Amino acid sequence: MSKSDVGLWCPTNCKPGEKLAIIVPYRNRDVHLRLFVKHMHEFLRRQQLMYTIFVINQEGTTKFNRALLMNVGFIESYRVAYFDCFIFHDVDLLPEDDRNIYRCSEQPRHLSVSIDKYNYQLIYEENFGGVIAVNRQQFEKVGGFSNSYYGWGGEDDDFYKRIIYYNYSIVRYPEEIARYIMLRHERDERNEPNQMRFELLESAESRFNTDGYWTSNYTVIKADSLYNGLIYWISVTV
């Protein structure tokens, strides 16, 4: 593998078909991040992919807004390259099987189908969270994620609604392939359950044209390649 100064990794013995941005929304999970970065570089290199791991860190005391951070990752990824495919990836999920290929397809793909915490079963058919893959065209067509969900819960279901509204279908690898280990953790501070999530979901469709990646409000505090290019770190306040 070779890498650029800004952390774009590329296999030297083949030419990948697309550039892959791994977008990781993050706050105060140092141990998980170290385990994640080591595991993912080994996993992605075995798949001979061209990729960058972006860690989008939320600073300050505002409640965690995971979806907004994923929008930030999409917007700010230009700092490294023009990416074709975006994998939105929770920091506590580690893929187990190399057949779980990290690439985009004609339809949005749910990658984290079966997780050890849930006995390796899909917890509900509309689940579209954890680890997902969408290409640039798909993300832009649905408007990205809603920025309205502060705290835990709701943003993945909102994104699912957008996917279906714009006539996409969710595709998945078989459960025996799309397997993940979830790193154990307590509920994060300032990531309490969002008491408004059900109300927001009820009215989600009315905001599809007014609430998306283009309305993301944030300030970049730091953006730089860290740890010899292992990650591209973007710190923001929201």
From TrEMBL:
Keywords on record: Glycoprotein, Glycosyltransferase, Membrane, Signal-anchor, Transferase, Transmembrane, Transmembrane helix
Domain of life: Eukaryota
Record GO terms (molecular function): galactosyltransferase activity; N-acetyl-beta-glucosaminyl-derivative 4-beta-N-acetylgalactosaminyltransferase activity
Boundaries of every Galactosyltransferase N-terminal domain copy: 6-105
GO cellular component, one term: Golgi apparatus
Pfam families found in the cross-reference section: Glyco_transf_7C, Glyco_transf_7N
Primary subcellular site in the record, as a coarse category: membrane
Signal peptide start-end: none
Any one biological process term the GO annotation gives: glycosphingolipid biosynthetic process
Membrane topology: Single-pass type II membrane protein
Compartment(s): Membrane
Pathway: Protein modification; protein glycosylation
Residues of the Galactosyltransferase C-terminal domain: 109-186
Family per record: Belongs to the glycosyltransferase 7 family.
Descriptive protein name: Beta-1,4-galactosyltransferase
